[in-house]
Give the backbone structure.
Amino acid sequence: MTALNVAQKILLANAAGGLKQLPAAGQPLEIQFTHTLYQDATGTAAALAFEKMGVDRVKTTSVIVVDHKTLQVGFIDADDHRYLESFSKKYGCWFSRSGNGICHSVFLQDFAAPGKSVIGSDSHTTNAGGMGMLAMGAGGTDVSFAMAGTSYKMEMPEVVQVNLTGALHPGVLAKDVILNVLKVIGIKGNKGICVEYTGPGLKSLNVSDRATICNMGTEGGVAFSIFPSDEITQAYLTGRNRAKDYQPLAADAGATYSRTIAINLSELEPTIALYPRLKGMDKVKDHAGMEIDSVFIGSCTNANYENLARVGELLRGRKVVVDTAIAPGSAAIARQLAAAGYMEIFYAAGVRIMENACSACIGQGFSPSSNGVMLSTSNRNFEGRSGTETAAVHLCSPATCAASAVTGKLTDPRDLFGDNTELAFKLVPPVVDMASYTAPLPPEEAAKVKMHYGPGIAPLPNLDPLPPKLSGEILLKLGNEITTDHIQPAGKYLALRSNADEYAKQATFVQVDKTFSSRAAAVRDAGKHGFIVAGDGYGMGSSREHAGLCPRILGIRAIVAKGFERIHLANLANFGIVAFTFENPADLDTLNQGDAAALDTSSIESGAAKLVVGGREISLKLAQGKEDIPMIRAGGALSLFASQMKA
Ligand code: MIC
Ligand code: SF4
């Protein structure tokens, strides 16, 4: 029998239909997920899609968490929460209400289990890979189909090994590890790979550290990251009264990988990812002294007990000199911090304690000032994400953030506290409180639940089939690394997630070109079709399917780019937008916004098509899989589903 690595083992264990042997890398593979996760920003649209599927009860362990839209200025957020709560009760899910914590933090602590699999409507669902779980992010429609019991189609990834040796020095944290891994793999073009962590260095990383590392693998665009499940995993689960969920998971002797990256933890230093889009990944000491205006310590990446307790030790008896906020990852973490005395230290240091939610990570409060410089422990620093377009947000570890909050300048924590400062912190028992969730109702009770639809919740639009001939104009020409925050920004627009028409009208590409949505709607209303052309890395970042749905509502039927990121490419197919790459990437230079363009879609099954611009033919390659074509032709996943139901 072939020796398997951990990634291959977990894929095989969760493959649909009792598969005996995995396909070669790049070949189709279907996964039957055991768990699913929705959060409130993507969850309403996903739940509306689930309701259209006519299934009475979810087929997976399904967890729904309110964590993104918790500002509740006006009725819209609260209505969405109520809708999700009623959905959760009606269809048999676990519900975690506002304040209970960030979806990935609560999922890790109370639901993630080694050997199992989760697909979530949030790109950082990968966090649970730290528990030896197959954990992937996807668009909400894909998650809803998985909840309804359908297998998820993906390509068998190549498995890249990151072999860890040595041990981290005090003041160097898991965040520094992943920033250094990202420095090697880059932030785009990794859609066909997954990452497996191996080596003697594993022993110095606890489950929270491992989750931090898997969480931010998403920033590299990899399908998922995974750690083995060992005695450290077992101790974590036992501490949370979940010893029965433990199962060991290790690579077979002689398992092979497509590539190996060697990281010696002892050589790593505090690292900073500069604004925007994780530029730099430099040593903190190379930028030490940079003036800062504010510090945010939170997010699903590293707002865990161990990291925040270390922050507590760094702040003990000190005062912060810049506006500093801490948002614990969950109520359980906040209560553990309180029990250990760290909440008192935070308040005494002058820190603002925020809700146990996404908070400033997604521009839901604590936006920096104009031209401000913020240090943040979160995982993304896309343009405008903080809510302040002119501000720069640099990403670093909680230790670097805490040291810098005390000095008011970017500071290597070892400079403030000494190279040998053991960041030992107080360990108190974790807080386990399953009563903080609403557990799935028994079917008889679930059947009686009445759904709550607030006035801000609009049904999903019906999407028409792809015409055989597209003809219209290039509405937008874009460069490289267009993120989903460029396409469909969050921040103050998050409230519109439950009303896709309005979200499209007000927000699509608003940061790039304020005229886009009205120009696109005019082309659409004239019976023509809009095209977008772009560089490499199109659609990086979030799993938000509105970045596919809203452009589609505005009449975009085809996008041509030098390269696409994985989740977004699937979202485009789910909403009936056909995606192509250039046969010759230099052709992008010859195209301009406003050019009249036409495209014959009648034979895209061949994998090729021509974009006709000013009499010239530009050769294109289909970026989506051929198996996606029926869905794209039908107008999207739900349109295809509806037509199959009728047949
Ligand atoms: C993010 O971190 O960008 C988000 C907000 O959590 C998104 C989901 C969303 O857009 O609602 C993600 O990571 O997928
Ligand atoms: Fe929430 Fe930020 Fe994590 Fe996204 S990255 S789930 S916004 S904390």
User: Anything to note?
Assistant: The first strand starts at residue 28 and ends at 31. The pocket of iron/sulfur cluster (ligand 2) is lined by residues 68, 102, 104, 122, 124, 299-300, 358, 361-362, 378-379 (CB under 6 Å). The chain has a mean pLDDT of 96.
